[in-house]
Amino acid sequence: MDPETWQIISLTLGVAVLSTVLILPLGVALAWLLARPGWRGKSLVETLVALPLVMPPVATGLILLRLLGRRGPLGYWLEEKMGIEIVFTWRAVVIALAVMSFPLLVRTARVAFQEVNPRLEQIARTLGAGELRVFFTVSLPLAGRGIVAGTLLAFARALGEFGATIMVAGNIPGRTSTIALSIYENVLLGHDSAAFRLLAVSVAMAFAAVWASEFLMRRRAAAP
Amino acid sequence: MKLALKRIQLPLGRWALEMDVELEGQVIAIFGPSGAGKTSTLDLIAGLRKPRTAHIALDGTVLEDTSHGRRLAPQERGIGYVPQDGALFPHLSVMGNLNYGSRRTNGSSLFSTEHVAEVLEITHLLSDGIGSLSGGEKQRVALARALLSQPRLLLLDEPLASLDEKLKSRGLDLLRRIHGEFAIPMLYVSHSREEIAAICDQVICLAEGRVTQRGAPEILA
Amino acid sequence: MSMKTNLFRMVFACICTSSFACPAARAVDVYVSAAASLGDALKEIGAAYEKTSGDHLVLNFAASSVLARQIEEGAPADLIFSADEAKLDDLEKNGLLAPGTRKSLLSNQLVVIVPADSTLGIASAKDLTYPAVKRIAMGEPSSVPAGIYGRTYLEKLGLWQAIQPKVIPEENVRAALAAVESGDVEAGIVYKTDELIAKGVKLAVEVPLKDGPDISYPVAILKESKQPDAAKKLEDYLESPAAKTVFQKYGFIVKD
Predict the structure, then answer these.
(1) Is position C13 within any domain?
(2) How far apart are the C-alpha atoms of A84 and A6, rounded to whole Å?
(3) Does the CB of B68 have a partner CB in chain A at under 8 Å?
(4) Which of A9, A54, A121, A212 gives the lowest tally of CB atoms within 10 Å of its CB?
(5) How far is the C-alpha of B131 from the C-alpha of B139, rounded, in Å?
(6) CATH number of the A3-222 domain
């Protein structure tokens, strides 16, 4: 494999790992919150979280571009006041991947938290554990497998993300050209063998991640 | 122990739990058929359910008072709970379960893990996982776990329900021994007259969410 | 004067002259948003340009519509090289182009292709009205540049009404090419540059340049460019003989 292909693969893996790590704390916390019954605004939050999953990725990309572009509310502040460029850099790729994969993590982790026997959390409270301790010592460990499964799913989604990424990060070889974007470019230029090579890598990685995720979900059902 | 359960109103499925009693005793039983609201009563006392209205006080300490908007969180009530299925933490070993709520014993060896385990005859299980325990063993571990948090009151929901006759009588002996050894008042839910007669000094009867009788265990005969 | 002092003076002089030379030779990042179809040509031209100018090209390849959107939202581009005049019209209307820098650099040729094993004997655009030709793949006739040009040409010949019901609109020209390659359609309308890289198709009709629509790949410098001088230098280079040779190699027609 030539160095250019290696660069594309390592860039893709790097941004996917980074975006997954970034969404973990908020995603798990939100999943736990959404697993708790009826609080005000719960339906609204659930719907907002699900949006990137059901909207056309290009639409999501457009919204991100509007927010993070030089003239956008966030982008202006970041670029003018802090000198940080987002659009057309790897940062935009990470943000696009994070937004698109976030719902998968939250929804899977939420199911995992819902399956934790609430009795166990209640008993923990009677034994004197505060809410934070209940979360870290009972809820989180028992939801563990499901959370990992959700993380893997989010990672797989990040690996394959295209529509939002090209909009907000552009397709810049060497900087933002991920596997998905490279496949697109190679197809448009008629470089079929290069496209298929990248496709094979993409499928292999996604397959591994989703397979592992499914395996964990099955194991989770068997556990007490 | 003095336990005040005043102006209790808690909607359940088919009926509502309504109580207005003051209980006094060392081992008090709640007797009634299934669905009468016995477990819900325990949940209320432990702070695991929110009533529509209630005034709950234990030995003078107000645990809950809806008319003044006061509520002690379950963490702060100092009430141990042994639910019907034990509810042991599956991801922790027996030792891990026991240590979960145990307070550091300040000098007193009465509530040390070793002593409690000895009284409850589970010393040989300490390093095991909970998956290999029998029903009776699980109950004893749950009981030990609650005891180690040095509660002011122990709630027991049908602790002997899953045991056969021989183990039941052993279980009753154990409970007597615990009460004698650790001097913690207990609230004991059961639908067995024999069990109640064996260890309780007071009983209230619950049916369809209401108190129908109260007094010494003899009233059940 | 001692040898040491002479040496010192020489070194000092070198440093001085080189530091005066440095500001002009400082490498600059030039952001170029370009239509994906120009990818191969621009990568080759870009590599050569980087050697001679010392500037670094940051190339962003996407569909012309995406490129325009990005620029409208303030994405950092110095030069835009589009396949769609209409998109540049929009940018110009919104005052995003540096005045006087818009040029039409390249053109292309419309062709009709058929699957390699086709026996339909299509020799002119009119033959597309044969009943045997049931489906024709082309870029979306209202949004994809190649599709718009195709429609314009067929309208000029008065054939559009007859042909439109047979059109299978595709999101991009490569998809149209793939449809013809797979034999799912009887014919396709694409660019000459696409036909050159295709396998499994054969050329049926080459629309003569004088008859065909005025296909244009315009280039322009963005008003908000942070390196307008470097962008100008690059724009000029794109018209150089060296660059022209590369474009022609890939099948583009260079405008004079």
Answers:
(1) no
(2) 27
(3) no
(4) A54
(5) 13
(6) 1.10.3720.10
Contact at CB, A127 and B46, closer than 8 angstroms: no
Task: Report the run of H or E that residue A169 belongs to, with start and end.
Answer: helix A163-169
C81 close to C67: Cβ distance less than 8 angstroms: no
Confidence class of residue C21 from pLDDT cuts 50, 70 and 90?
very low
pLDDT digit string, tens, across residues A154-193: 999 999 999 999 999 999 999 999 999 999 999 888 898 9
- Tell me how close the Cα of C22 comes to any Cα of chain A, in angstroms: 25
Nearest residue on chain C to A173, judged by CA atoms? C59
**Can you tell me the mean pLDDT for C193-219?**
91
Q: Mark whether C193 and C238 lie in a shared domain.
A: no
pTM of the model: 0.84
Which residue range forms the structural domain that includes residue B53? Answer: 1-77+153-159+185-221
Residue of C nearest to A168 (CA): C70
Quick one: which H or E segment has residue B63? strand B61-65
| Segment C217-236 mean pLDDT | 95
A24-49 pLDDT, tens digit per residue, is 999 999 999 999 988 999 999 999 99
Specify if C16 maps to a domain.
no
Q: Indicate if the pLDDT at residue C20 is higher than 60.
A: no
d(CA C112, CA C109): 10
Q: Which stretches of chain C are DSSP H helices?
A: 3-25, 39-53, 64-72, 85-93, 145-156, 160-163, 173-181, 192-197, 228-238, 241-249
pLDDT digits (tens, 9 = 90+) for C118-143: 999 899 999 999 999 999 999 999 98
Which residues in chain A are closer than 8 Å to C42, comparing Cβ atoms? none
Whether residue B117 is contained in a domain is answered as yes
Of C213, C204, C196, give the one whose Cα is nearest residue C252: C196
Q: What are the residue ranges in chain A where pLDDT is below 70?
A: 220-224
Nearest CA in chain A to B100: A127
pLDDT over 50 at C19, yes or no: no
Q: Going edge to edge, which strands form the sheet with B53-58?
A: B70-71, B61-65, B53-58, B2-11, B16-24, B210-215, B202-207, B27-31, B186-190, B153-157, B79-82
Residue B122 C-alpha from the chain's centroid = 19
Give every CB contact of residue C172 below 8 A, 6+ residues apart in sequence. Answer: A188, C36, C63, C139, C144
